[in-house]
Design a protein that fits this description.
By secondary structure, the chain is an alpha+beta fold. Helices cover about 35% and strands about 25% of the residues. The chain has five helices and five strands.
């Protein structure tokens, strides 16, 4: 049985969705670099979660938000974003969501706000892999969140308090 089929079956049995082929290929090729705690920054591709992370975090979002899309799975951790709520600045965790039907990539914050990032996982991750290959192994805190800060810039997001 192929690694892709085993991974896809685990997700299907736990979450009821099938993973897109481009994401299955990524986790098959980079399995050793995936973390159960991707916010830990312990490895070169830190930020991407392993299957336990995907299942557990997706289930947590589904339990927290009644209208969380069933076709969306949480595949990683992007970092923190600052928001203004009731005139006070707060930091929210931001996760990486993957649409299992279209392979589109989203940022999903801990309030359940979903923001589209890219039209396909393959396009989105290709930029990250190209960026990481140019970095020395010894570079500290080399992570998906650092890459996202680089390409997106640090922008303050105002929130209406929802």
């Amino acid at each position: 049985m192929s690694k892709n089929l085993v991974c896809d079956d685990m997700i299907y049995n736990s979450l009821g969705v099938r993973l897109p082929e481009d994401y299955l290929n990524f986790i098959s090729n980079h399995f050793k670099d995936l973390d159960d705690d991707p916010a830990d920054h312990c490895c070169r591709k830190s930020g991407f979660g392993n299957l336990s992370f995907v299942i557990g975090t997706t289930q947590a979002f589904r339990n927290q938000f009644d209208n969380f899309p069933k076709k969306l799975v949480i595949i990683g951790y992007a970092g923190l974003k600052k928001v203004i709520i009731n005139h006070q600045e707060m930091e929210l965790d931001v996760f990486i969501g993957l649409d299992t039907e279209t392979s589109e990539v989203f940022f999903v914050d801990t309030f359940g706000k979903i923001e589209k990032v890219e039209n396909s996982f393959d396009m989105w991750v290709r930029n990250f892999i190209a960026w990481i290959k140019d970095r020395p192994i010894s570079e500290k805190r080399l992570s998906l969140s650092n890459f996202i800060k680089l390409i997106m810039g640090k922008k303050r997001v105002k929130n209406d308090g929802r």
